[in-house]
Amino acid sequence: MSHLLEVTSLEGGYGSVKIINGIDLYIDKGEFVTIIGPNGCGKSTFIKIIFGIATYYGGSVMHKDSEVSGWRTDSLVNRGIAYVPQVDNVFQSLSVKENLEMGGIQLSKPLLEERIERALQMFEDLRPRMNDVAASLSGGQRQMLAISRALINDPDFLLLDEPTAALSPLYQQQIIERIDALRTKGITVLIVEQNARLSLSRSDRGYIFSNGKVVHTAPASEILVDPQINEYFLGTKKD
Ligand SMILES: Nc1ncnc2c1ncn2[C@@H]1O[C@H](COP(=O)(O)OP(=O)(O)OP(=O)(O)O)[C@@H](O)[C@H]1O
Ligand SMILES: [Mg+2]
After folding, report:
1. What pTM value is reported for the model?
2. How confident is the model over 52-73, as pLDDT tens digits?
3. Domains of the chain with bracketed CATH
4. How far is the CA of 47 from the centre of ligand 2 (A)?
5. Which of 36, 72, 120, 230 is least surrounded by CB atoms within 10 angstroms?
6. What are phi and psi of 191, to 5 degrees?
7. Exposure on the CB side of residue 211, measured as CA atoms within 13 A
């Protein structure tokens, strides 16, 4: 069977600035896959090219056996792909409820309400905060809101960019657990994470990026015990 997403020789960047230099990556239905790599190596840019918000130059992006490289974001959303950006992923001055409604402006009111209810069942912490502005939420709750908003369109493939950045260890753990739980709802997860050990501990496979390329890929269980990778990326260097 073909992969849910298969990226081959992808190149792209911002305008004429090339950042991604030929990336091969795939993800199968139901997988949880983590991308790690140093700051500025192109992790966010890679996700943005797939989602149609950074410039696509060349290569192939196959989604469910269709070539979708260079497609517009709204067409990708209609295919069931959702994206939670690394920064500015909620409207701070709007309420939690309004943020969720913004996620599904094209839906009928009953369907929107049903989807909001379903998101709240995954992220119960938001329920008592529905009428509060997003700016008043804790960092962890804000990430829950951003993820909930992405779920309103009923995606089956979620792209997440550093959802645990700047959160307390307790929230980091909670967020990754909730994301993992999305798999029981039929959602495939491709995530970029600085908290590599935490994310890889829930992942099937991992990719390591450097300078806009994949430098290593392996099952997460192997990456977690690889001494060289541990030294550079997993924060366990001893000396
Ligand atoms: N809008 C932009 N226009 C031009 N260059 C950009 C833009 N955004 C990012 N870059 C550059 O692209 C390169 C890759 O950035 P990117 O954000 O993809 O890295 P990253 O791996 O996600 O890093 P981090 O771990 O810090 O989030 C960097 O050199 C960055 O300065
Ligand atoms: Mg980034």
Report:
1. 0.94
2. 999 999 999 999 999 999 999 9
3. 1-80+155-239 (3.40.50.300), 88-154 (no CATH)
4. 9
5. 72
6. -130, 140
7. 1
